Backbone:
C-alpha cells in the first residue's frame, strides 16, 4: 500500500477560525490523510489565516512565508484568503487560496496536490464521532452561526465571512451531545453575533431528539443547559432579549458569564462605530442583570483612540468603567484596517494620545479587577481542572474562559484529580489576574 499523504496545519486567529480548522481537519482525516505537526514530513501545508487587524494580517503573511520556505507546498484559506490577488502577488508559489468557510475548496486543493493513491476505507481508519478537535479533550468551541449582518465602521469581518447564517438548532444540539459524550465538560458558544442567532431564519422550529426547538438564543440556551455541563456564551451583543437569558443563569442552566463587546460608552462614538444597540442604557441593564443573578461575570472589550474621540468622551468611558464594575476587560488602541469605513472619519487620534489613553484605561480597570478578585478570598468555588502538576493544578472557575481570563492555582498535594474534573476549592489568596486556592478539608 502506498504511503498515506501527510498534511501540516497552521491555524491562526479567533475561536471561530479554530472551529473552521477543526472542520477541515475532520474531513481530511475522514478522507484518509494523516495530520503531522512539522514541516519536514508534510506533503502539503494548510495555513488558515486571520485578516481582522493589521497585526493579524502580518502574522498570517509571516506564517505563509515561513511555510513556503520550510515546505514549499502551501494552501491558504481563512479570512485573509478573500484577498487572493494580494496573497498570490506576494507569494506566487502558493498552490491555492480560498476564503473563510470554503471547506470543500481547501479539501479539494489538498486532494489535488497531495493525492491519496490507495482507496480509503473509513471503517478501518476511524474518525472520532465528535470530529478532530484542537482544544483539550474537556472543553470545545461550538459555533452556532456564520457571518454578521452589522456593518460596524471599524470592522471588515462581514465582507470576509458574509451575512448572518444560523445553523439549524437540531444540528447544533446534536453536535453538543456528541461533544459531551466524548468527554467535553465545557462548551464555549461562539459566532460573530450570538445574540442574533436565528434572526435570519425567522426563529424557525427545528427538531432534536424528537422534540421541537426554536432556532433562537433563548431556546438554544435552555436546551444546552439540559446537558449537565458548563455552557459559556461569547460574542453577545446587548440586545433587549439578552435580558431573558439572565434568569437561565440564575437557575444554573448555563454559566453566569457574558462576553459582551461594549466597545465604548460615549453615544456619539458608538454611533460613529455603527454599533448595534448603541442607544441601550447599558449601566441600567447591568444593574438589573446583577439583581437577578448576583454571581454574573461580565467580560468586555473596548476601543480607545477611535477617530474623533475627545478627551471628554474618553473620560466618559473611564466613568463607565467605574460605574459598571466589569469583571474582565480587554482594550485595543484603534488601528485602521484596510477596507474599514472608519478610516475615512475625520480627526484621527495621535499614537501618543492613544497610548496614554490605553494606559489610563488599563490602570483604571486593573484596580477594579483586583478588587473583584480580592472579594473572592474566603469563598468556595467550583472549578474545572485544566492541568495537573506534582503539587499544583491549573483550573478555571465559572468566571474564567480559557486563554482570555484568569486562572485558579490549586494546591493539590496527594489528591487524585485529572483534567476535566470539577472540584470544589477554597479561595485563599489573589493576585492581579489569578486566584490561589486549596481543596477544603
Residues:
Amino acid at each position: 500500500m502506498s504511503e498515506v499523504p501527510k498534511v501540516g496545519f497552521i491555524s491562526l486567529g479567533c475561536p471561530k477560525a479554530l472551529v473552521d480548522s477543526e472542520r477541515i481537519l475532520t474531513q481530511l482525516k475522514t478522507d484518509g490523510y494523516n495530520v503531522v505537526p512539522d514541516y519536514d514530513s508534510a506533503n502539503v501545508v494548510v495555513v488558515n489565516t486571520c485578516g481582522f487587524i493589521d497585526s493579524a494580517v502580518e502574522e498570517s503573511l509571516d506564517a505563509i512565508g515561513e511555510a513556503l520556505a520550510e515546505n514549499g507546498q502551501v494552501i491558504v484559506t481563512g479570512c485573509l484568503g478573500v484577498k487572493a490577488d494580494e496573497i498570490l502577488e506576494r507569494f506566487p508559489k502558493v498552490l491555492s487560496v480560498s476564503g473563510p468557510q470554503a471547506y470543500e475548496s481547501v479539501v479539494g486543493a489538498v486532494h489535488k496536490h497531495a493525492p491519496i493513491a490507495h482507496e480509503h476505507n473509513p471503517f478501518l481508519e476511524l474518525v472520532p464521532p465528535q470530529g478532530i478537535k484542537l482544544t483539550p479533550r474537556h472543553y470545545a468551541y461550538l459555533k452556532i452561526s456564520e457571518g454578521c449582518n452589522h456593518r460596524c465602521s471599524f470592522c471588515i469581518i462581514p465582507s470576509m465571512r458574509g451575512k448572518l447564517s444560523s445553523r439549524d438548532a437540531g444540528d447544533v444540539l446534536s453536535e453538543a451531545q456528541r461533544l459531551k459524550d466524548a468527554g467535553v465538560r465545557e462548551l464555549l458558544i461562539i459566532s460573530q453575533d450570538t445574540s442574533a442567532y436565528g434572526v435570519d431564519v425567522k426563529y424557525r422550529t427545528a427538531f432534536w431528539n424528537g422534540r421541537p426547538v426554536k432556532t433562537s438564543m433563548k431556546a438554544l440556551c435552555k436546551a444546552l443547559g439540559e446537558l449537565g455541563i458548563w455552557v459559556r456564551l461569547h460574542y453577545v451583543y446587548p440586545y433587549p432579549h439578552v435580558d431573558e437569558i439572565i434568569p437561565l443563569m440564575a437557575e444554573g442552566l448555563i454559566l453566569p458569564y457574558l462576553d459582551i463587546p461594549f466597545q465604548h460608552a460615549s453615544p456619539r462614538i458608538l454611533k460613529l462605530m455603527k454599533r448595534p444597540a448603541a442607544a441601550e442604557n447599558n449601566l441600567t441593564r447591568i444593574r438589573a442583570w446583577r439583581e437577578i443573578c448576583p454571581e454574573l461575570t461580565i467580560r468586555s472589550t473596548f476601543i480607545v483612540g477611535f477617530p474623533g474621540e475627545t478627551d471628554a468622551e474618553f473620560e466618559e468611558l473611564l466613568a463607565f468603567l467605574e460605574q459598571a464594575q466589569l469583571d474582565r476587560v480587554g482594550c485595543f488602541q484603534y488601528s485602521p484596517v484596510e477596507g474599514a469605513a472608519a478610516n475615512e472619519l475625520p480627526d484621527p487620534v495621535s499614537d501618543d494620545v492613544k497610548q496614554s489613553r490605553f494606559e489610563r484605561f488599563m490602570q483604571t480597570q486593573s484596580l477594579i479587577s483586583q478588587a473583584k478578585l480580592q472579594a473572592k478570598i474566603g469563598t468556595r468555588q467550583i472549578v474545572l481542572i485544566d492541568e495537573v502538576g506534582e503539587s499544583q493544578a491549573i483550573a478555571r472557575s465559572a468566571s474564567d474562559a480559557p486563554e482570555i481570563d484568569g486562572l485558579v492555582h490549586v494546591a493539590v498535594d496527594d489528591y487524585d484529580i485529572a483534567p476535566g474534573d470539577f472540584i470544589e476549592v477554597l479561595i485563599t489568596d489573589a493576585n492581579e489576574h489569578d486566584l490561589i486556592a486549596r481543596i477544603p478539608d
